[in-house]
Automatic annotation (TrEMBL):
Organism taxonomic ancestry: Eukaryota, Metazoa, Chordata, Craniata, Vertebrata
Gene Ontology CC terms: cytoplasm
UniProt name for this protein: C-factor
Coiled coil: none
Molecular-function GO terms, alphabetical: oxidoreductase activity
CDD domains, per database record: carb_red_sniffer_like_SDR_c
Gene3D superfamilies: NAD(P)-binding Rossmann-like Domain
Length: 262
């Protein structure tokens, strides 16, 4: 059973690619009571132009928030800004989309150094960890505002971590040759464990936590050879998000709703 996504929705990494398309489709497909908090590192710069234009097309529905998930002070400031806006209604949906890949693909063993590993982990793992931790009280508020009979859903209170098929340890022998990407793969495997841990931690609060693989998408990271457009990927992701329930908490799914092994 699907539910329309509603309420306060926060998305990270929204200046381009999948993040920008998530904001676009959420603004179009969510109900009139929904509000999207679109976070990116440089909202006032040239990189934020497309996001600013999108916000102007949906007056009153999109708030642009400055956020660098690799900077703890930036995370704290963004959380405070969101807290002032949402008030007692809390946060219904957090989508941790922001991520980096270093060094440039294929990011082989020989080309990867300690600095690459640490920078990727800081953005792809520590960032979502801290942001979710700081936003937990707002997610709790949203979850409590629903009736006791209503189960877990992305409409009530949920955290969605954007992961990847490349994070699957079981699937590594099948996927390694196409993209070695040592820092990216290992960081997303760590994000999967974070997803599983927070799913258990937040279960008592009726907050759903899941990871979603958006597919191989034509973005700056995915490359021009990728088979999926951002539009089709996000369309599938939103369909999946609208059907999630307690049985999906702690799981890794793809953009079509198929389960991916750890």
């Amino acid at each position: 059973m699907s539910v329309a996504l509603e309420g306060n929705i926060l998305v990270t990494g929204t200046s381009r690619g999948i993040g920008l398309e998530l904001v676009r489709q959420l603004a179009q497909k969510s109900g009139g009571g929904a509000h999207i908090y679109a976070c990116c590192r440089e909202p006032e710069g040239a990189g934020g132009q497309a996001l600013r234009q999108l916000s102007a097309q949906h007056p009153g529905k999109i708030s642009i928030i400055k956020l660098d998930v690799a900077d703890e002070q930036s995370i704290s400031a963004a959380v405070e800004a969101v807290k002032k806006k949402v008030g007692a209604s809390g946060l219904n949906l957090l989508i941790n989309n922001a991520a980096i890949n270093k060094p440039a693909s294929p990011a082989s063993l020989l080309s990867t150094g300690k600095k690459d590993m640490m920078e990727v982990f800081e953005t792809n793992v520590a960032g979502p960890f801290l942001l979710t931790k700081m936003l937990h009280p707002l997610l709790q508020s949203a979850a409590k505002s629903c009736s006791a009979a209503e189960g877990m859903s992305c409409r009530r209170a949920a955290v969605i971590n954007v992961s990847t098929l490349l994070s699957s340890i079981e699937k590594c022998p099948e996927t390694f040759a196409m993209a070695q990407m040592y820092p990216y793969r290992t960081s997303k495997a760590a994000l999967n464990m974070l997803t599983s841990c927070q799913a258990e931690n937040f279960r008592a609060d009726n907050i759903l936590v899941a990871a979603v693989h958006p597919g191989w998408v034509r973005t700056d990271m995915g490359g021009e050879q990728a088979p999926l457009t951002t539009e089709d990927s996000v369309l599938g992701m939103i369909r999946v998000l609208s059907t999630l329930s307690s049985k999906h908490s702690g799981k890794l799914l793809d953009w079509e709703g198929n389960s991916i092994p750890w």
